[in-house]
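Journal club side-thread
Mid-discussion, someone asked how the predicted structure for our own chain would compare to the paper's figures. Pasting it here so we can look after the session.
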Amino acid sequence: MAKRILMIVGDYAEDYETMVPFQALQAVGHEVHAVCPDKASGDTIPTAIHDFEGDQTYSEKPGHNFTLNATFDEVDETEYDALCLPGGRAPEYTRLNDRVLEMVRHFFEAGKPVAAVCHAAQTLAAADVLEGRRCSAYPACAPEVEAAGGTYADIGMDEAVTDGNLVTAPAWSAHVAWISQFLDVLGTRIEHREAVPA
């Protein structure tokens, strides 16, 4: 059964962590609404590409302009089945928005599926929903996960971890595992069938 998924983004959200799940979740039949505080449907956010090039931290380059398809002020989180939180620079400031935190708390209080990647752990920590939870994130966010009462999952950069309704991963390099585990939590089943000769 198709799900309605809310995606909360912001200026300089990580490009791959925004574009890939937005498209992949729709490709398997889910409805995804991407919203940003103080912006409306049809507005755009600039994204940033975080890359791993052997430096002590990631590099950051301009990404794309990502078009929002829903209006933040009109969202009723109770009408959604799941939440998706990309990382990047956006969580640094979206976590300061009380309405964002209310929305995030709703999904945890209701036990609905939540997928968060990379710096999105900053939003989870600010919403105070990590107590007793195992959560992966970009390694620089580990202190925030632990300060919020969570257990930082120190996993490979291409791995993801599921703790109940929460699916997390350290970066976009884990998309295969992260999106696959999120689909499992959503109850999405994909069947592979042999092609029928014409």
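Post-session note: Residues 4-186 form a domain with the Rossmann fold fold (CATH 3.40.50.880).
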